[in-house]
Amino acid sequence: MFDPIRNLSLYSVLEEHVRSYPGKIAHAMGARRFTFADLLERVDRLINALDKAGVKSGDRILWLGQNSDGIMELLIAASQLNAMLCPTNWRQSRAELADQIDDLEPAVIVWQEQEVGKEIAAARELAVFKDGLWLLHDGEGKGSYEGFIESASRDRNDHREVDTALGALIIYTAAFDGRPNGAVLSQNTILLENLVLAPTMRISNQTVFLAVGPLFHLGTLMQCLTVFHMGGTNVFVRRTDAMSIAQAIDAEKCTRTWLVGKTMDEIVDLNADGRFELKSLRSVPHTDAWNAMVTVEQLDTLVPGYGQTEVMGLAVLPYYGSGTTGIFGRPSPLCQMRIVDEGDRDVEPGEVGEIVFRGPIVMNGYWNRPELNAKRHRGGWHHTNDLGKREADGSLSFIGPKVQMIKSGVENIYPAEVEACIRKHPDVADCAIIGIPDAKWIQSVKAIVALRPDAKATSRDIIEHCRERIASYKKPSSVEFRESIPRGATGGIDYKALDEAYGGGNYPGGTTRTS
């Protein structure tokens, strides 16, 4: 039953910020800046426009585009209608995007023309689901996102009965089993995790956070949400670009962001003449040139931590494990953790088993996956599919995924997804994917392929087949052909044998693959 006295939602947090921080900038993107009061007016208009368009409890809204402050606006607005927002990976192929449109069947799709419009238009044609209201994000007038907002009244929406335990956010996870799954996260989960992350990431109302990483991952989005909750300022750039990042830090005096070493080096080269003032940015140490440009701050408590999308980002943090044996720390105050064997029995400290959680930070489940939900949430615990061990002092040492992944740069690639794609080629009888050590990218993807009798597919054919169907970074860099794929007694692929035969290795966590 709705209890207005005890209600706390993303919308009510925004309402309070309007009172607590009059005139303060909530969002900035390029030349556009919105105070908390501006943001509340835009959110109210969005709610009214979505309501008029027929969006109701449980409906999905899909964001098909790069980073934007519109993602935060839509999340707050959708949650006030008990609907859900899904910002999806704009780097996917048209076939992958079409699959997600069909999986979600969204009531509203907000899409971007610049850079990604061609693939989105192709995905729209491929998708079976043809309903839903399409709004152009980077356009004007009728049929545009801004026109949609302007068409609605400013009437307030604080009277709505909101169930904060219902899903508000859907984030698709990587394809462990050959198909991505959308983790459904509630407002309660979001708001509670914000309170955990704020002290551990040193986020406050003084924080000016630059959202560089993709907002279809929680790595960046969870920090944006925490900054919003704490009354800080979020600054957005469309994608990772050294010039845009340097300009934003200089103009907005950003204090925090998350950058990979390659991007730091690009900014150093760009700013060799000192045209941008970057001292406001607090950063972990990097090169001498980088350290001289920013304010170096040792943030040992932030890294590495352990978690996944299904538990709203981070569930185990070094903040709760100073001086422990396991560098990942201990579980946050909002969850319980166990390490279990195949029969879901606790293993002894020091023994490796599957990491399982329960608590309010656990997702509601995967969208439209009842069988998988029953499997992953059996016994009242969320099963992560990751391996770890409790040290004698109770801290966690993360070992690696039960289903091994390949690490290419900052991207996680799951063999099952690439294998499923290759098996669709008419000349392929069987295949397997392994990771090959790569000095630049950590690992590169190698496909081991067995062709059908008399088939004549080449390495180029296999690679191009993948390029057309999955994101380009997932495609094999090389292909080896053999008569058959080695399999163990239970029928599973013998990845260990393939690694030994073709030089596989350097998997995340230092684990060795079996079948």
UniProtKB/TrEMBL annotation:
It is an enzyme of class 6 (ligase). Residues 417-491 form the AMP-binding enzyme C-terminal domain. Keywords: Ligase. SUPFAM superfamilies: Acetyl-CoA synthetase-like. GO terms for molecular function: long-chain fatty acid-CoA ligase activity. It comes from the Bacteria. Residues 14-367 form the AMP-dependent synthetase/ligase domain. It holds the Pfam family AMP-binding_C. InterPro entries: AMP-bd_C (IPR025110), AMP-bd_C_sf (IPR045851), AMP-dep_synth/lig_dom (IPR000873), ANL_N_sf (IPR042099). Transmembrane segments: none annotated. Its EC number is 6.2.1.3. PANTHER family: ACYL-COA SYNTHETASE (PTHR43201), MEDIUM-CHAIN ACYL-COA LIGASE ACSF2, MITOCHONDRIAL (PTHR43201:SF5). Belongs to the ATP-dependent AMP-binding enzyme family. This is Long-chain acyl-CoA synthetase.
